[in-house]
């Protein structure tokens, strides 16, 4: 490294002394075509910049995929929206839903919360999606190979545990659950140094998606809760007209989406899959098993 610095300094010194009467372009040509030293560093810098740009593009491309499939999850819910005017015993369940996306980045299963219609409090959307899909013919026993679940609401303790035990790689959600969220952080909490417990193994990676529309969604609930409704849960807000507006906008966003990162095939798959989602409540989801 020391020798390299001396060499570079020598090149610059000789270059300065021997090109005093040349114009800027001639100096530039001599420096980068004959010295080789600075040219090499410039090439390395260009390569590194190209790699950084490529990595940045792939990250943004993946974020756009997440954006599209979260809009699909929101649209799945909106297609069977439950109003506060419907009696509780006549409701399907909470206005929560999701979509499972396979290793090929195509949607393969969907479900909505159905705790009231099934009279079963365990029938959250995530549970219905994973348990139903894994019962389909030819499906694996675990979701360990690049499956992603997209949910309109952050998974609860039960759903996070189920997703972890089935080895799901990643779950992405649109709305933060301020009451029952951050389950992954709690499961990963290490208190062994004070006589407690080690982190739970194989915890699913829960990711909050940040975009303009998800920020609006979370801000809407926060504002609504501040209006003297401090003891009202997020599922109550999800019955409100205010919430319905955001879910309706999500469907419109999906149908009018324009990809900026060459995800037209993903967008087309999401819109086409939405057509397969029924308006009516479906107790038996086996009919939606992928062929």
Automatic annotation (TrEMBL):
Which Pfam families does the UniProt record give? Answer: dCMP_cyt_deam_1
Tell me the organism's taxonomic lineage.
Bacteria, Pseudomonadati, Pseudomonadota, Gammaproteobacteria, Cellvibrionales
Q: Where is the CMP/dCMP-type deaminase domain?
A: 66-200
Q: Which UniProt keywords apply?
A: Metal-binding, Zinc
Q: What top-level branch of life does the organism fall under?
A: Bacteria
Show the stretches that span the lipid bilayer: none
One annotated GO molecular function is: tRNA-specific adenosine-34 deaminase activity
Q: Does the keyword Kinase apply?
A: no
Record-level GO BP terms: tRNA wobble adenosine to inosine editing
Species the sequence originates in: Simiduia agarivorans (strain DSM 21679 / JCM 13881 / BCRC 17597 / SA1)
Q: Which InterPro entries match?
A: APOBEC/CMP_deaminase_Zn-bd, CMP_dCMP_dom, Cytidine_deaminase-like
Protein name, please?
Answer: Cytosine deaminase
- Extract the SUPFAM superfamilies matched here: Cytidine deaminase-like
């Amino acid at each position: 490294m020391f020798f390299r610095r001396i060499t570079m300094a020598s090149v610059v010194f000789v270059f300065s002394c021997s090109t005093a009467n040349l114009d800027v372009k001639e100096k530039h040509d001599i420096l980068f075509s004959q010295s080789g030293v600075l040219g090499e560093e410039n090439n390395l810098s260009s390569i590194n910049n190209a790699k950084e740009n490529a990595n940045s593009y792939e990250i943004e491309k993946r974020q756009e995929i997440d954006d599209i499939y979260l809009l699909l999850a929101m649209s799945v819910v909106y297609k069977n929206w439950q109003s506060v005017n419907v009696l509780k015993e006549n409701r399907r369940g909470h206005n929560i839903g999701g979509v499972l996306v396979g290793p090929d980045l195509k949607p393969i299963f969907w479900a909505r919360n159905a705790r009231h219609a099934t009279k079963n409090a365990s029938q959250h959307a995530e549970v219905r999606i994973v348990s139903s899909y894994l019962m389909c013919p030819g499906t694996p026993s675990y979701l360990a190979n690049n499956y992603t679940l997209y949910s309109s609401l952050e998974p609860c303790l039960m759903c996070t545990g189920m997703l972890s035990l089935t080895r799901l790689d990643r779950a992405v959600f649109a709305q933060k659950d301020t009451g029952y969220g951050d389950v992954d952080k709690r499961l990963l909490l290490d208190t062994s140094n004070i006589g407690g417990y080690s982190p739970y193994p194989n915890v699913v990676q829960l990711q909050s998606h940040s975009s303009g529309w998800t920020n609006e969604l979370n801000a809407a609930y926060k504002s609504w809760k501040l209006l003297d409704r401090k003891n009202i849960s997020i599922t109550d807000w999800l019955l409100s007209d205010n919430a319905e507006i955001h879910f309706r906008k999500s469907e419109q966003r999906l149908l009018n989406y324009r990809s900026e990162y060459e995800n037209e095939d993903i967008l087309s798959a999401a819109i086409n899959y939405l057509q397969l989602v029924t308006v009516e409540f479906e107790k038996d989801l086996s009919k939606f098993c992928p062929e």
